[in-house]
Hints:
Layout: H1 6-10, E1 14-24, E2 33-38, E3 45-50, E4 65-69, E5 75-77, E6 80-82, E7 85-86, E8 88-90, E9 96-98
Antiparallel strand pairs: 1-2, 1-4, 2-3, 4-7, 5-6, 8-9
Amino acid sequence: MQTIQWNDFEKVELRVGKIVRAEVFTEARKPAYILHVDFGPEFGIKKSSAQITEHYDVETLPGMLVVGVLNFPSKQIGPIQSECLITGFADENGHVVLSVPDKDVPLGSKLF
């Protein structure tokens, strides 16, 4: 594991958002959803592609709080421009489980 300095960590904009819409990403090579995540008035709604189909359904995702990285450059993924990275952990089978706050916090709050 590589050691980083505190100021390196401070550069990463890990912020809380709320999924407002989720849809099946039919053009994706691997099963995925397109998430529309509201990061509050300062950052707005951002899109992201997420390979989370093993543990989540599009019907249950709206309203869920998630943690996203907002200061990566946008990335073209098939026909969509992914504007943030939604974070998660791999389970024992390599399927992603979302990183989520366990209490309500203001949208756009930074992880520290």
